[in-house]
Each structure stands twice: as structure tokens, then as C-alpha cells.
Amino acid sequence: MINPKLALAVIGGLTIGLLVGPGAQAQQDNQWFPQAREKSQASNAKHPGGQKQVSKPRQIHAIRQDHPNNTKMAQATKTESAKKSHRLVLQVNSNEPAMMNLTLNNASNVAQYYRDLGEPVSIEVVTFGPGLHMLRDDTSPVKPRIEVLAMSHPEISFKACGNTQENMRKAENKDINLIPQATVVKSGVVRVMELQEQGWSYVKP
């Protein structure tokens, strides 16, 4: 037989559960399981709204590669800056027209050669002693040719020895006038030495 007191207790418990509803039951569960409640609150605080946050993917930085055009421009600039400047000094100390013309031939050929290559060049013709006649206005056998050459190749210059000019003035008892393309230096020999010391190439025809 069923115990009447036990049956009444069961019926009473069911009736109270129906009256208080699920909210009260949940509150009662939280009281009995405090650790579960704290874990749930911590999870809600970390992820508001109950939604799981998705971590952002790492950004991978690609290695930058220079554009081919930039590389070509850099190479062209490097090549341009690497072009060597050429310098040549030619000595004339003889009053022979053949020697003077040979000197002008050498100067013209060198100037044209490097012009075709697109490389800078400086050429200096230095005269002293009897070679000063090459630049004298009254005795130069190559005066017309020097005039044309100076116009077509401005990189070629002509230097006259001042010591020789003074000695000729004393010997001939008159002023020694030079062609317009000539520039006077104190000493032709010293001029050649100084240019060589500065790294100029030296050639005597």
C-alpha cells in the first residue's frame, strides 16, 4: 500500500514547481551550482551577446619587387655616371708643318672617336720652343686649319709658352702676336708636366 504521507509530499512538490515556474527553478539551480554560474558569467563578459569572436587572419606582407622599368632606369643612371672622362695633352716643339698637321690629325681623331661613343674628352695642344710658330699669327702654316678645328671641336684647346714668346720678342725685336685660338701659359714644359701629374695622357707626335 502507498504511504498516504509520502503521496501528499510528492503531490505538494509538483504543485509548487508548477506555481513558481522555470525562472525560480533556474535561480534555485544557480544556488546549488555556483561554479557553473561564475563560469557562465565570465564567458558572457568575454563574448558579449553570446557570440563567439573570430580572430582576424594575419596579414602577410608580400616582398616588394621593383618594377622592371625602375630597374632599367637605375642601370642606365649607373652606366651614365660610370662614363670616364678622357684627357689628352699633345706636345709640339718643332717648326715642321708635317709635325703640326700630324698633331692636328691626332687631336681631331681622338675628339671624334669619343664623341661617337658619347664620352667626354679634353684635348690640349701645348707648344713651346720652335713649335710656337704653330700658333703665331704671322708664321703659322696651319692657321686656317686650327680655326676650323676649333669651331668643330671645342674640346680641343691650344696653349702657347709664354717664355718662348718672350724670347722670340727679344730676338726679333717685335711683338709676337698669336692666333685667337691660342692661350698663353707661363711655361709650356711645366704645363705638360702639370697635366701629366693630374693624370692626363701624354703624346708627342
Description:
The structure is a single chain. It is built from 7 helices and 5 strands; from the N terminus they run αααβαβαβαβαβ. The longest helix is centred in the N-terminal third of the chain and has 29 residues, at 4-32. The protein has a domain at 81-203: 3-Layer(aba) Sandwich (Hypothetical Protein Ychn, Chain: A), CATH 3.40.1260. It has a 5-stranded parallel β-sheet, sandwiched between helices. It starts with a helix and ends with a strand. By secondary structure, the protein is α/β, with parallel strands linked by helices.
Portion in beta strands = 5-15%
Mean pLDDT: 78
Class by helix and strand content?
alpha/beta
CA radius of gyration? 52 Å
CATH superfamily of the domain at 81-203: DsrEFH-like
Which CATH first-tier class of the domain at 81-203 would you pick? Alpha Beta
- The 3D shape can be described as globular
Low-confidence stretches: 14-26, 28-34
Widest sheet: strand order? 4-3-2-1-5
CATH fold annotation of the domain at 81-203: Hypothetical Protein Ychn, Chain: A
Q: SSE order in H/E notation?
A: HHHEHEHEHEHE
Architecture (CATH level 2) name of the domain at 81-203: 3-Layer(aba) Sandwich
Main sheet record: 5 strands, parallel
Helices and strands in order:
Blueprint: H1 4-32, H2 34-46, H3 68-81, E1 86-92, H4 97-117, E2 121-127, H5 143-152, E3 156-161, H6 162-172, E4 182-185, H7 188-197, E5 201-203
Parallel strand pairs: 1-2, 1-5, 2-3, 3-4
